[in-house]
Amino acid sequence: MASDASPKPAKRALLDLTFAALERELVVGGLRPAHAKTLWRALHRDLAADLADQSEFLPPLRRWVMEQVGSDRTFTLRFPEVIGEILSSDQLTRKLLLRLSDGQTVETVVMGFTGRETACVSTQAGCVMGCVFCATGQMGFVRHLAPGEIVAQVRQAQIAAKTSGKSGLRNLVLMGMGEPLHNYDAVMTALEIVCHPRGLGLAPGHITISTVGVVPGILRLAAEQRPYHLAVSLHGATDEERTALVPIGRRWPLVELMAACRTYTRQTGRRIFFEWTLIAGTNDSPEHAGRLAVLLGGIESQVNLIPLNPTDGYVGSATRKGTAQAFQHVLRAAGIPSTLRQRRGIDVAAGCGQLRADRANADAKSPGAPLAFQD
Ligand code: SAH
Ligand code: SF4
Fold first, then answer.
1. Does residue 70 share a domain with residue 89?
2. What is the mean pLDDT of residues 245-269?
């Protein structure tokens, strides 16, 4: 028998549980598994903020919720608080700053047109990878997010996307703060939860995981046949140029990274998106584009060009539109499709970690000031 001195079992977040895990918990609590469907629906489809007053819950489920869910119970149900919000000048992009239960803050972005909304969520508070131009990298690593903290962002984005009669989220990108493949298990659990058809029901084919190039994670995604899209952030096509921007490139040099990408495309049959932040005078010349084209030779790929969003910790500016188009021209001539991030929404969407950084600095300059190409 446990003595009074024995530690209490740690409380668990209800949003961390997959459908199968929730079902198991209810069965352990003496309920029929069918109650899991009702509870799951309330949590992940109806996006209920409070489970205490759910008329469709049958008495055994009501009792379970009363006995098991609460700040002093086995399971907690807490949602991050929205402590900052900015809307792009065209009203199509909304950036939220969310405070987690321990006070950490992360960013979530909702962007796009009605019915085609995309959520961009964070997977860590801070990041260990240290990319020099990235506001999240500049703040260093704080901690991993739990699955439920990633799910809660998607939930919050869904609420934002459904306001004013909109139909809701269609796409999800893991391009917010943090490196998803450095928090692999929590990210995979979160994606399983948000894809469950009885809940948020996102399609795996509409989800993109963006990585700085964590080779073991890329190989694991391929070996596990995860059904999501992959984006790899390159920014340089030689190790020397890349590691100046992406220091972690020393750990996984391009030869290893590209071998992993080839394995990924072979094993999954899916092309890879390659991200390239365009920095004026640093990695945006036709010669840089030519080296990128050679590097990507023989890989099913698409390049996403992102003009730099300047941050306090890095001296550099965005490539001009004409230079970006010349870069694209070289890629096109080599048969590599590319997109240039639209002007739309860029004022709030670009540059993960900046809203948090702006808050932290209590910066005088407006975080919502439009940032776009100089024509
Ligand atoms: N850690 C992952 C995902 C988050 S960053 C990764 O690095 O891929 C998502 C994308 O935004 C990356 O391609 C990253 O290089 C880019 N990015 C970060 N800071 C930026 C900035 N200030 N301007 C433009 N792109 C930026
Ligand atoms: Fe981390 Fe991605 Fe930012 Fe690099 S760009 S520091 S990997 S969040």
1. no
2. 98
